[in-house]
Amino acid sequence: MAMSGRQYETVPGFFIQDSPDRLPGPVGLSTQNEILPRLGLIDERPDRWSTFTAAIHSLNATATRGVQYKVFFIGRHGEGFHNVAEAKYGKKAWDEYWSKLNGDGEMVWGPDPQLTPLGEQQAWDAHVAWETERRFGIPVPEKLYTSPLTRAIRTSQITFDNLIVCDLRTTINVREQHGIHTCDKRRTRSEIHDAFPEYTFEDGFTEADLLWKPDYRETHADVDRRVTRVLDDIFQNGHEQCRSVSLQRVLGAALRADGPFSYIDHDAWRFRRGILAGVSPLPLVSSHRR
User: Fold this and answer.
1) What's the domain of life for this entry (predicted)?
2) Of these residues, 77, 127, 178, 181, which one is catalytic?
3) How big is the CA angle at 273 (ends 267 and 275), to the nearest 5 degrees?
4) What pLDDT, in 10s, does the model give residues 225-270?
């Protein structure tokens, strides 16, 4: 992904997600329904995470000029009521009709739906996985970026509950593909702050959602450009080595044919809702060179 003049690449060999020969079962089966042991880290030794952290430090210490290495934990939100509605009506009817409404009289999915009880449990499952790996020294994110939508913020809030102390930030460009579907229209800034006061807002975060349009839905190319801007900001302005990003659309943009992690099979590693899969987009370590 090099729209900005920067080139983003990944460093394979650390996580099972970028090693097709290590798939833990039929492609797309185990990976969708289980949180991988060690969040996918290949190394099984008790000192695995200290070894991993040392390897990242070594990569940065020996990098050529203009090259940086950062670790990303990227996850998907838990099940929301819009997911239940889409499953109920089917994708075609959802896209053509139901997604443009706020509900059907039985449930409400727009704007900005909540997690379902199952979605909350999925986030707690991710929390337990992180809690387990903390005992083995997994590097905790030094900064957390999340979509401004309730389902994403709540998932990240549960996942890292009492596990990390860092800058928790809702970010304009780290959000779902928006437009037309009411479930992808966010709440006001004030409402988000009231619900999640511990999360800060990036500069330029407006009170109302000025990005969502009732008659235009973003294309994949639009999302790709947003993701590139996020990566540019992280690598240009951030000094942290370990980040967390809560949102699958960001992952999807990175895994498309022209994305920096395009060699990974997107369908094989499609996230189960609520799963925060290891490092780098699906875990991997990402480098950047100018």
Assistant:
1) Eukaryota
2) 77
3) 90
4) 888 888 888 888 866 666 666 654 555 555 554 554 443 444 444 4
